[in-house]
# Entry
Amino acid sequence: MMNNTLKKQYKFSSGTKITGKWHKQQYTIIKELGFGANGIVYLARNGADHVALKMSDSSMSVTSEVNVLKAFAKVQGAPLGPSLLDVDDWEIRGRKIPFYVMEYIQGPDLLSFVQSKGFSWTGVLVVQLLNDLDRIHQEGWVFGDLKPDNLIVTGPPYKIRCIDVGGTTMQGRAIKEFTEFFDRGYWLGHSRKAEPSYDLFSAAMILINLSYPKRFNKNGGGGIEQLKSAVMAKPELKKFRVPIMHAIEGKFASAHEMRQSMLETLSVKTAESQGSPSASKPRSKPMKVTRQQLKKQKSGGGFLETVLVVLIVTLLYVLYIYGELL
# Structure
């Protein structure tokens, strides 16, 4: 995290005006949105528009994150992260502060959304997330610091969006930024190499976090068994135990594979809720027919048969008489 000394240096009050040295765009700070290892983010106003403005003490960090946003913009399909709007420097009291401006994505973070709308939304949103991660991975990136705080739900229609790309790392390098609860190294002692399986471990931990909003610390050395116990202790997580545990154990080769596993789990849940033949819903018992009802059915059927026979015999007799007269 950004140390407190640096945070104080970058603490600016509401109403502070920032003018870019090169592009001359002016921004008015409204409030702080958050801060991390690479800088602090403010909600700001540019004319009538609301934007997110991130400033840092490192021009290299700004350049790196700007390059990530530019790379994301080239990925086909729905936007993965916020749109990049401006990159500039701000000169104040003899020092230069690098900053960039991006689209302000409005909505609750993933954890707040699930707590408000219900856990039933979890599967659908995580499937969306895995689809986005698959596209990021195909472009050679790993999100890295993947957690509910960095995921915003917009809509309706509800759509998950990734924000704060400060931890996004090129595959093969060391993860730049992480949060312990979602970190493979913290729980399993495995490497923090930027690879798809790192993000998938974090995605599994997001599912767990949505059921344990206050999170929890590892007992002793942590490990797979503690996480498995946490999953099995919650009925809503137990239903997703296969994709969760496979992601934790590194059994998925891609986000696409984990997404397919999630979809299979969701299809089983849907079938059960709709009462399909494969569900465990008890079948309706055959209706019992009393002896009187059976006798009545038989007598009714016999009467119809008698009338039909009489009509046929009468018709044949008429034809016979007609033939004799000729």
About this structure: The beta strands are 17-19, 26-36, 39-46, 49-55, 84-92, 95-103, 141-142, 151-154, 159-162, 169-170. The chain has two domains: 4-103, 110-274.
